[in-house]
Amino acid sequence: MRLLSREYCKILTELKADSQVQGMREYKQHGKVSTLEHCESVARLSYRINKYLALNSDLKVLAEGAMLHDFYLYDWHHEDGGRHKWHGFTHAKTASLNAQRHFRVNHRVSQVIECHMWPLNLRSVPKSREAWIVCFADKCISLYETLFRR
């Protein structure tokens, strides 16, 4: 995390200290990558995009949105009686609700989380700079993990 600002690292460190966030280590995301590792990668790339393109987004909203964008707290690879059949379409809302309940995140962070699956979720178009950054970073990291981290 040496390339991240102190402020950004502090936000991520506080989130990662939480036991439920640490629990994301138990769920697989893509290939051999855990959900926690995936969210950390998205958070790092989001920061770099923001910094190198001089987008001047709100670092707290960006860090919380990126780190909690997949805070849905289940393993979607298990059938679970068909509950996760529509995971791609439903997990963003689940993650947002979990983040609101557990961390009391604000509306801007919730919007970042809920929009990260656009364009799969056509109604959830990113409406802020932070939401666009996390959405793009998530696509890049997901593609990389799917192709090269099996």
Using brief descriptors, characterize the structure shown.
single chain; 150 residues; mainly alpha; two-stranded antiparallel ribbon; 7 helices; 60% helix
Can you describe this structure?
The protein is mainly alpha-helical and 150 residues long. 60% of the residues lie in helices and 3% in strands. It has 7 helices and 2 strands; from the N terminus they run H-H-E-E-H-H-H-H-H. It has helices at residues 6-16, 19-23, 35-52, 59-68, 87-103, 107-115, 129-148; strands spanning 28-30, 33-34. A two-stranded antiparallel ribbon has the order 1-2. A hairpin with a 2-residue loop joins strand 1 and strand 2. Helix 5 runs antiparallel to helix 6 (107-115).
Structural class determined from secondary elements: mainly alpha
Oligomer: single chain
Strand order of the largest sheet: 1-2
Major beta-sheet overview: 2 strands, antiparallel
Number of DSSP-assigned strands = 2
What distance separates the N and C termini?
24 Å
Fraction of residues in H or I helices = 55-70%
Query: Low-confidence parts, pLDDT < 50 over ≥5 residues?
Result: none
Order of helices and strands: HHEEHHHHH
**Mean pLDDT rating:** 90
Instruction: Using the CA coordinates, give the radius of gyration.
Output: 14 Å
Q: Count the helices. How many?
A: 7
User: Roughly what fraction of the amino acids lie in strands?
Assistant: under 5%
General shape: globular
